[in-house]
Design goal:
By secondary structure, the protein is mainly alpha-helical. The protein has one domain. The protein is 71% helix and 0% strand. The protein contains 4 helices and no strands. The longest helix has 16 residues. It starts with a helix and ends with a helix.
C-alpha cells in the first residue's frame, strides 16, 4: 500500500461507525489489491461507494462521499 492509499484508508476508517471499522478496512484493503492488480472496473467503483457509505457515521457521510468520488475520478484513467 502506498502513502496516498494509507492516508485515504486512515481518513475513511476515522469516519467509520465504531462497530463497522473492520468491515470498512476489509473493503478498502480489497479495493487496493484490485487496484494494484489492475482489476478496478467502473462497476466495482459504483458498488464500492454505497457499500462504504453504509459504514460511515451519518454526520461524516457527505465528507466521505466527496473524497471517495474524487478518488474514483482519479482512477478513471485506468478504466
Amino acid at each position: 500500500m502506498n502513502n496516498g492509499q494509507n492516508q485515504f484508508r486512515d481518513f475513511i476508517l476515522e469516519r467509520a461507525k465504531k462497530d463497522k471499522v473492520e468491515e470498512a478496512r476489509v473493503l478498502l484493503d480489497d479495493s487496493f489489491v484490485k487496484q494494484a492488480e489492475g482489476r478496478i472496473t467502473p462497476h466495482y467503483m459504483n458498488n464500492l461507494l454505497p457499500n462504504m457509505i453504509a459504514l460511515i457515521e451519518p454526520d461524516k457521510v457527505e465528507e466521505v462521499r466527496k473524497v471517495m468520488e474524487d478518488y474514483s475520478n482519479n482512477l478513471s484513467h485506468i478504466f
